[in-house]
Amino acid sequence: MTTTQISEAPSSKQLIRATLMAAAIAGIVLVTIVMPAEYGLDPVGSGRALGIFRPRVEVATTDQPASAVADESASGSLLKQAAPFRTDEMTLELASGEGAEIKAKMRQGERFVFTWTAKGGPVDFDMHGDRVNAAQDEFTSYWKDEEQESGHGAFEAPFAGNHGWFWQNLNAETVTIRLRTSGYYEHIGRVGAK
């Protein structure tokens, strides 16, 4: 004959303790994962540490340029552009000791994504921009580094002007830079090229 044991139902105290524990776990998950990933809020820094933080997108106001206006009905998730989307790819060779500059003409708020590689050796570079009618040595530096073989990212023009890169080859051999950009800008090209 087989004996079956019937377990007792949990007591009220056990049910309350289990409910409070579940609520505490849900609160921790909300603050550490859901808020950074879905709402752009990271009160304890866990979203950045886990790589899931998505900053909130601000809705454009009327003082923003006409070329980059957010759709308020979509909570700032849509960026309308007057100019068409474009993609450009260019290659330039830098002899030993040579430097070169490529810049895109952009309105404030226009954006592009970029990737560049240096074949033949690392290069020093400065990603920077200058305002319309700026003095020759007046510019804003965004990202500067030495001995790099690549760079990748996204860029939003903080002001109207020319924005791009200056690369310097300090190797003994020729280096080939290959740049690809996609986004919204009027044109892109080598500065000083004829």
Summarize the structure.
The protein has 2 helices and 11 strands, in the order ααβββββββββββ. The chain has helices at 12-39, 46-50, and strands at 68-70, 79-81, 86-94, 99-106, 111-119, 123-131, 140-148, 150-156, 161-168, 175-183, 187-190. The strands form 3 sheets. A 5-stranded antiparallel beta sheet has the order 7-6-9-4-11, with no helix packed on it.
Walkthrough of the structure:
By secondary structure, the chain is α+β, with helices and mostly antiparallel strands. The chain contains two helices and eleven strands. The protein has two domains: 12-50, no CATH class; 83-190, Jelly Rolls, CATH 2.60.120.380. The strands form three sheets. Strands 7-6-9-4-11 form a five-stranded antiparallel sheet, with no helix packed on it. Strands 3-10-5-8 form a four-stranded antiparallel sheet, with no helix packed on it. The longest helix is centred in the first third of the chain and has 28 residues, at 12-39.
Order of strands side by side in the largest beta sheet? Answer: 7-6-9-4-11
Gyration radius from CA atoms, angstroms: 26 Å
Q: N- to C-terminal separation?
A: 99 Å
CATH architecture grouping of the largest domain:
Sandwich
Mean pLDDT: 85
Tally of strands: 11
Low-confidence stretches: 58-74
CATH topology type of the largest domain: Jelly Rolls
SS content category: alpha+beta
> Mind telling me the CATH class of the largest domain?
Mainly Beta
Largest sheet: 5 strands, antiparallel
Domain count:
2
List the helices and strands in order: HHEEEEEEEEEEE
Shape assignment: elongated
